[in-house]
Amino acid sequence: MMLDELFELFPEMDGLVIRTGETYTHNIPYHCGNGPVDYKNDYDGSIDVHAGLLNLLREEVCVKRRKKVVYRTWDFGYFHTRPEYYMAVTSQVAPHPGLYLSVKHTQGDYFRTFPFNKTLTLGNHKQLVEVQCQREYEGKGAYPNYIAEAVINGFEETQGDPAPRCLNDIKDHPLYAGIWTWSRGGGWYGPYLQNELWCDLNAYVLSQWGHNPQRSEAEIFEEYSTAIGITPDTRPHFRRMCLLTPDAIIRGRGSLIHDVSVTWTRDHYLGGEKQLQRAFRDIYERNIVDEALAEMKQSTAIWEEIDSLARLVKCADTATESYIRTSARYGLLLHRIMRDGFAIMLKGYIGDRTGNYDVAFIKAAIDSYDRAWSDYRRLKEENSDCATLYHDRYVTFNAGGVRNKIEFADGMGAGVDKYRNMF
After folding, report:
1. Which of 145, 88, 415, 66 is nearest to 274 (CA)?
2. pTM of the entire structure?
3. Strands (E), 117-232
4. By CB neighbour count within 10 A (0-12 exposed, 13-18 middle, 19+ buried), where does 76 fall?
5. Which strands sit side by side in the sheet containing 126-132, from one edge to the other?
6. Contact at 8 Å (CB) between 260 and 276?
7. For residue 111, which of 255, 298, 207 has the smallest C-alpha distance?
8. Residue 396: predicted pLDDT
């Protein structure tokens, strides 16, 4: 009945996007959010519910009305990421030219450290690949973050993974039907932007590649650089700085050597001891403290190169040229803060476990941390195109089990102050 009414009222619609997972109800309190299934308590029943809904949509929308359905598989670890679950659902639904299944390119949320999604190319249904251009765990466009090249050709951390590990690996597969981008809107809070350059760059390259996957990413990138007025002689600097950003981010917010959840930073919040506990335990138990600290230092070293390259880039649009420089410096200063805060808390954690504190190291890191914060705040004060800043606290969603209740929680500031006060 609802589908009849919908298409009678809006006959010009091409179709529907059906979102069944992670649906929020902050402004519609009389509705229930999230999926129409109970994965944990009725696993088999949840498969049948998805299959039943898909078959209903197929019949009512695709067959009867010759419209399209894009069925979004995103949930918290079932339909979207488990090949066996994906096949159990889709094997009950006959393919149709108007029916598409939407799958994120990552094996879960948009986290660095997650591999390419193993449900892509499975089954018999056409698939659309979702890609996020403004990533809430990676700055949201407040600083350079060019992920389009790596989504197309493969991220550094997936180099040893079997194919498929990137869009180029699946572009000729018969089930691949295209991509769609979340061009803006990752996360819930800041940083808030004065310029959309980095989100726009990712969206442009991905959309143009999606129109013609036989084009190279480098060709499309050059096209974008020309369009925004980067001068020909400085385009190699712009290209180099953009390609460095994924290398800096995986080392500064994720890791190539230890077990860390990238959720220790999200939106404009910097986590502390609680959010980094898993990483600190892994580093301590494997005795890789020096290696973990060196990785964070390598991230800031890469950011220093990005910052230097940004100052060499010339652009016909002076506002764009200014933002390239401001945002690159933002990335450098923020990652210095994270490097030093991480180091203070890690060394403090080791001292808590062993009773032996590296006091000189912690004191020097606190001095460096304070200088980085001072420089970071000054950047915002002196540059009107600078995005809003990060906070040294964290946030708890659905606090105390109360739906939609948000409370601030101890983050990096409290973690650093714990050892500041000790020494």
Report:
1. 415
2. 0.95
3. 126-132, 176-182
4. middle
5. 15-19, 68-72, 99-104, 126-132, 176-182
6. yes
7. 255
8. 86
